[in-house]
Every structure is written in structure tokens, then in C-alpha cells.
Amino acid sequence: MCQNNHKTLASMRYFFSLPCSILKKVVVAIIGFVVLFIGILLIFLPGPAVVVIPLGLSILAIEFEWPKKILKRTKEKGEKVLSRIKKRK
After folding, report:
1. Domain for residue 74, yes or no?
2. Is residue 63 part of a domain?
3. Are 34 and 17 in contact (CB under 8 A)?
4. d(CA 40, CA 38)
5. Which of 19, 45, 62, 69 is deepest in the core (most CB within 10 A)?
6. pTM of the shown model
7. Is the sign of the CA dihedral 38, 21, 10, 12 positive or negative?
8. CA distance linking residue 69 with residue 57, whole number of Å
9. Whole domain around residue 48: which residue ranges?
10. Number of helices and strands (H, E) in the chain?
């Protein structure tokens, strides 16, 4: 039992001794993926998935490059659709 406590304490010391940038990346990833997952669930459940999914991607874009690319492509496609709608009127 005591050995497990020492291992736990050692792993906690290691976690808190990591540089702040790594801790920030881990925290942002956890929060971002949780929000993104909730948004994906809201596609099938009643709720504002159209708002929550971009929110999760925006949180992930704080630390990662791939969500920025997805958001940029989505914005460009949305602008094209809007311009087509405006041309029809």
C-alpha cells in the first residue's frame, strides 16, 4: 500500500514539475476535446451543435494548428454559401 502512495506522489511531482507550456497544452486539449465531444453529441441530441462544435475547435486552436485549418476552411465555405444566397436574391 505504501509503495502505491509513493508512486502516486512521484507521478504527481512529475506532473507538476512539467513546464507550464506542456501543462497548458494538456489542459487546453482536455477542455477542447470535451467541448468538441459534447458538440458532436448535440448533432444527435437536441441542442446547438452548430455553436458548440466551433467553440470546441476554437479552444483547441489556442494550442494546436489543425483546428485552425478546419475553422478557416469552414469559414471560407460558409462565406461562399452566403455569397451564393445573396446573388440569388
Report:
1. yes
2. yes
3. no
4. 5
5. 62
6. 0.70
7. negative
8. 10
9. 18-88
10. 4, 0
Query: Over 90: is that where the pLDDT of 2 sits?
Result: no
Backbone conformation region of residue 53, classed left if phi is above 0, alpha if psi is from -120 to 50, else beta: alpha
Q: Which amino acid is at 18?
A: L
Q: How many domains does the chain have?
A: 1
Is the pLDDT at 12 greater than 80, yes or no? no
Distance of CA 14 to the CA centre of its chain: 25
Query: Is 4 within a domain?
Result: no
Are 35 and 56 in contact by the 8 Å Cβ rule? The answer is: yes
CA quadruple 10, 12, 14, 17: dihedral sign: negative
User: pLDDT for 14-35, tens place per residue?
Assistant: 666 667 778 888 889 999 999 9
Total Cβ atoms within 10 A of residue 59: 20
On whether residue 52 sits in a domain, the answer given is: yes
Check: CB of residue 28 under 8 Å from CB of residue 67: no
